Amino acid sequence: MSTEVVSDTPASRLTKAVPAHPLAPLSETELTSAAAIIKASWPAHTDLHFKVVTLQEPPKAEVVPYLEAEHNGTQLPSVSRRAFINYYIRNTNKFHEAIVDLQSGRVLHNVLLGPFVHANGDGEEIVRIEKIALEDAGVKDAIAKLELPEGTVVISDPWIYGSDGVNDEDRLYQCFLYMRDPLNSSEADSNHYALPLPISPVITTETMKVIRIDTLPTGPDNTIKPLGKWPIFPANEYIPEHQTLRTDLKPLNVVQPEGASFSVSQEGTSNVLQWQKWKFRVGFNQREGMVLYDVRYDNRSLFYRLSLSDMNIPYADPRHPFHKKSAFDLGDAGAGIMANNLKLGCDCLGSIYYLDAVLSDDKGGVVPMENCVCIHEQDAGIGWKHTNYRTGRAAVARSRELVLQSIITVSNYEYILAFIFNQAGEVDYEIRATGILSTQPIDEGVEVPFGTVVHPGVLAVHHQHIFSLRVDPFLEGQNNRLVYDEAFAMPRSDFNPHGTGYYVKETVVEQSGGYDIDYDNNRTFKIQNVNKRNPVNGKPVAYKIQAPPFQKILSDKDSFNYKRAEFSDHNIYVVKYRDDELYAGGKYTNQSRGGTGVRAWADRKENVKDDDFVLYIQAGINHVPRIEDFPVMPCEILKIHMKPVNFFDKAKSGTGRTTE
Amino acid sequence: MSTEVVSDTPASRLTKAVPAHPLAPLSETELTSAAAIIKASWPAHTDLHFKVVTLQEPPKAEVVPYLEAEHNGTQLPSVSRRAFINYYIRNTNKFHEAIVDLQSGRVLHNVLLGPFVHANGDGEEIVRIEKIALEDAGVKDAIAKLELPEGTVVISDPWIYGSDGVNDEDRLYQCFLYMRDPLNSSEADSNHYALPLPISPVITTETMKVIRIDTLPTGPDNTIKPLGKWPIFPANEYIPEHQTLRTDLKPLNVVQPEGASFSVSQEGTSNVLQWQKWKFRVGFNQREGMVLYDVRYDNRSLFYRLSLSDMNIPYADPRHPFHKKSAFDLGDAGAGIMANNLKLGCDCLGSIYYLDAVLSDDKGGVVPMENCVCIHEQDAGIGWKHTNYRTGRAAVARSRELVLQSIITVSNYEYILAFIFNQAGEVDYEIRATGILSTQPIDEGVEVPFGTVVHPGVLAVHHQHIFSLRVDPFLEGQNNRLVYDEAFAMPRSDFNPHGTGYYVKETVVEQSGGYDIDYDNNRTFKIQNVNKRNPVNGKPVAYKIQAPPFQKILSDKDSFNYKRAEFSDHNIYVVKYRDDELYAGGKYTNQSRGGTGVRAWADRKENVKDDDFVLYIQAGINHVPRIEDFPVMPCEILKIHMKPVNFFDKAKSGTGRTTE
């Protein structure tokens, strides 16, 4: 499947000694050096199309002693800095994966991938694809048949092609066409999703040419009607100058006169964040965006690594070509590279601190990512309260939270992604889904059971959003256990004569696999360390996981959708830790075929009891669109909670009381 | 079962013409008049123990025309003001229910209830019970056997007795005894729940005497050990002077320089609240606390009435007397009368408006309830966002919420209860559970599967909290439908050749009954009005219900716990509307036996399709205590959401955009 083409060219002139933390993202110098090392491994003038240049995280076996030394203040071991690189020979389908050592400049690994292994899209490419679709003579002819009003501006939205096993060996883009409001064609921020057109060109990335022009079904079935004069419906804009804005909302300001309570220490490209008793290191990469490392509370380790691993958004319309709409927004695009500059849109209140990052571009250069993570505190209402009714004395503490937020725009849609820490030792991962529905044309008067008409002529198809949060625990040690508690009624007996008793039973998960939360039994998964006991009650220290219910993937088990979205069928996957296994849908999701992600890893059926394991925790929405979701949907909010269970004792004041 | 003792004494001297709104809570004058009318119906010097004097809400058939006239500005019909009264002949078990007409002074209904029908506890009574328990000679003898340190202060927590069918015909209190920290006995706010004692006196309310002293099991089984020298464990205080307070949290202030964006019009005891396009009337009563009436958005009616109906908290320990711990905090005590004065404890930020109320006392007088509801706005993060990646322009709106909050203290425990309205037409009911666990003694070294040792010698038993939100919809009309949507995979076919399609199917609920949310099918209940159609897509206007999963009651179906907690076994109950049916656990929950609440009403199997129905929406927690929950637990938060579905269209700007 792959051919080793490792180069031995030392390329030492490009190498610098980099005293970075082993988990620090690659610096600008490292990024360009890494690309240059790969360029140097090819004949001069070979045009490489870089897809990703990013930190190759060192093996955990090297990092853990480093972190221990760091926290103990002892001599730091040396850990190599390495870069992971994906690239094409430009305008070919020759897709490569490489690892270079940044100190020595040596190429440690450099393989041609494939067949059926394809890279993510990138910004440059997407913009080129948009243009190619619109400049193609065949597409122009098709558009002409619609007899659109004079001056109409047509917009092309390139989509990752998806997989159905039918002629999808090449890396393709399927473009969906829309138009701006013809009465306002010069408005670049016109909501074209309100005016979808029935033409869909397909472009191959090998030649960057249109290879097919699909006509979309617009009726209740899969009949394709010949193109003809296209009905023009009214626009539906979201930009404020097209709204009657509310005037009755008075300002609400969050003021922090003494500034924020957290501190950020910048160590090169790495940021160490401290807030209350929390401390962790923040990274940022092209694919996952924010990554948190070495998360500690009161210097007790909790997590080795936390990140969003991937998400999958399969659509309900089974008709060609819509059946291929099944996006992996991290694997196919990248939560890092799609991150918003958060200063361009008043996204937060209070004292905000922004983090910058630097990512790679398609030519071996860098893309500065300014303000791609914001950090702020927020008040979360009452944290705890008790009133002694005998004395009338109330003791109450508000809950302060620390938020690390990143917002990604993936074409039409937005995800607001946040890690939230509080004073009770809890970590939440919050997802807010907003943005614009991906729309398609529908004939007037037609209703379909797989979508909602959200505007005249506009169908918003039902779709699932399935997110996978990767949790690499380190609960006071590398070897932990996954267990679950369940509550059951006691049978009647002399001990339970009135049928009121119930008990909680703990079960240990022995083997890697996919597991489900059973809400009917209050099944609650916990990460435990049986070698660390609570001094009060002797129970193993633990963190429990509270994840909201979601409908598992609806695509059938033989479908490519199901095979590819390897995390989509269970609330929780647990796998034995292996270096380089980070992405629940597999390393290469674009037009993937399954078998390279978390389901495959779980199928190794390895021991995970008192071992080093990784959890993938899923959350999701089955989004059945409403009129109220268009043109921009109000946030739908999901939260995964991780909470201490017998981890703290009163002496350590873990519940974080700030009191009156 | 009941004897009519209606009096015809007009008692007109006590009556005043009250031009109150039909849904306004009783005024001070009305409360005292109502009690006086009842007193006058009895021979002079009869000592009545009033349990409740409250508004007898008029029949909906009278209120609806009134509300229509009110909103249309036409002549208001006359609606009688009536009071509902529960009382005992003091120091007897003669429990009465009465209705009086406040205009005429006539007693319309006055019946002796029972047997097996008992009143709620009240504050005066609870304080008396506390004392009686501690002053009883037998209890003193029992305490003496514990050989507690000199000067120890013992505290008595009276508990509603519960039902098990064993000698519980009389209305009883079961007291649980605790001690203050013996090293700090003068501290009235010492957390006595950290020092539970094994003695539990039982008191009958008929004679107000101790009738039995139970010794509590403290081992792993139901063995009762003779009382002897009691081990003294360390204290565990929650008051701030006993904590090392955090010093590293900087102030975060919410400032509303122009004040709040809502307005409150006080109409006697009734308050009309307007915020953005929302408008509703706020009531407050002894049992439910906050009640919202006639909830409208942009003058389109949504709900006739919203309130918390009841809650049930059954405990897992099956051993006598703990098996009877199954509280109904509304029916047994009252969310209104237990409400905190919210100015005594800095509970909110920003511009706060407080509502007062007046409730009845046990002697026919009144209890002023100052600041029992607070109203404020809060920022809820980003409401929606979209960035046009082609132009880089971001449009973003924050989400502003309006919160009506009430906090109740039920002995050891607190509930923070809030209705939350937002700009997207959504209504949330939020419950925050906090306060102190109800504890009991446990021997050192013992572990039990039905509770957690949270402190040396202290067992916090697992328990369920099951809340029932009563929703009386009026979705643009009195006759609505309850339907549910479910998403199913499409079978493979020519239409769905790749197995990716799915569809949503709507099912109409025809008959009253208990229904469950099936998260695996994304089953989503909606309130619909099929006579009002969305102008864009022709779908019936609707509001959907999103309720979190919870484990249904664990007590077995033959248990009194199950029979009494009539709402505890389904996510949703739907019943045909009947006047006076308000309380999901029945009107009289104290030592109740079931058959008088929502399960019984549902069993009438009445039509609810396109009819006037009421929903009871359940949410809950199976609280398996952690060390981190003691001495005061960090809030556990539950939310029930109600969201518009095809109720608004773009023209009405229902999604509430405030934009950049």
Automatic annotation (TrEMBL), chains A, B:
Keywords: Copper, Metal-binding, Oxidoreductase, TPQ. Signal peptide: none annotated. Its EC number is 1.4.3.-. It is an enzyme of class 1 (oxidoreductase). Its cofactor is Cu cation. It comes from the Eukaryota. Contains 1 topaquinone per subunit. Topaquinone (TPQ) is generated by copper-dependent autoxidation of a specific tyrosyl residue. Residues 124-214 form the Copper amine oxidase N3-terminal domain. Residues 252-652 form the Copper amine oxidase catalytic domain. Residues 21-109 form the Copper amine oxidase N2-terminal domain. Pfam families: Cu_amine_oxid, Cu_amine_oxidN2, Cu_amine_oxidN3. InterPro entries: Cu_Am_ox_TPQ-bd, Cu_amine_oxidase, Cu_amine_oxidase_C, Cu_amine_oxidase_C_sf, Cu_amine_oxidase_N-reg, Cu_amine_oxidase_N2, Cu_amine_oxidase_N3. Coiled coil: none annotated. Belongs to the copper/topaquinone oxidase family. This is Amine oxidase.
